[in-house]
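Entry for the shared binder. Reason: the reviewer on the internal report wants the predicted structure included alongside the sequence.
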Amino acid sequence: MSKGERWANQQRNLGLKIIKSNDWKPLAWIFCLTAGLLVWARQASPLPVLLADRYLPGGGFVEILVLGAYAGFVGQVMLNAPRTARIRARTWSLFSLVFFVQFILGLAGLERMLMTGDLHLPIPALILAGPLYRGHGLFMPILYGSTVLLVGPAWCSYLCYIGAWDDAASRTRSDPPVTIPVWATHVLRPFLLAAIVCIALVLRSQGASVSLSAGLAIGFALSGAAVMISLSRRSGQMVHCTVVCPIGLISNLIGRISPWQVRIHQGCTLCGNCTRACRYSALKPIDLQLGRPGLTCTLCGDCIHQCPHNLIGYRFPGLSSSQARTVLLVLVVSIHAVFLGVARI
């Protein structure tokens, strides 16, 4: 038996042992983290951040219990499912649906559906460009930055309200996905990031009107939607997230220094199963030979259970592959449930 085969068997057996013997512990952590973060947000904010408190005073605690139970259910399913890609896509889509339904209802006149009543365009690029243009308003950059520090680029594959659309668009292709050229992800995205920063600073220095700035932001959002509808659907890859989104690039760059990593152990046969499963074009043949995904990896985990030899897994210092997967899922599922409760415009 080769070294790679021994490693795969150890990870498989250890993972099964952890799930079967300590099944309740990750779920308890998920519930406590979700409830604790929501209680802290409820107490720290000067505004009622939970919808239940806005419609029924004191109802926030009920919402916290419901979201904690929901997070525990999602965690139970994901930790024990042989493959998590479909479950992740569905929970991710649920968050995006709830987010935009609240946004639309707020636009329709139900102002309590909005966080503050002040309208901000739900475009990921504005997480960075908005504060640069306004000169204030760091809530979203702080929320984004703290989340990325906790779970690395998994923000893109579990928590971004726009990314769920690109994921859904890419899944309409039944044939194997088309590989995205390296220049598109390594050259075009940095150019777009630099352009957005420069445009935001120029608009601010020139005292540009809000209507002009909003028009440019809407134009960028519509171009991104066009990329999803055309390129992502046809290629089977998340072209918007890997080529267009500047926030995605920041997540990927931080992911390079994050303790959370995906690694490919020695013994890979280059069968390509993981490459076909990856919608971020992060597992090209050269990446497999190097033993790690490319820059665009978001820790989604869709590739892990596609490897017939169990040679792909998460890595975190001091943890086995299966333990790292469990801890990462505890964190992302908890944050997902928290965002479900408080992420509003």
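Summary line for the report: The first strand starts at residue 261 and ends at 264.
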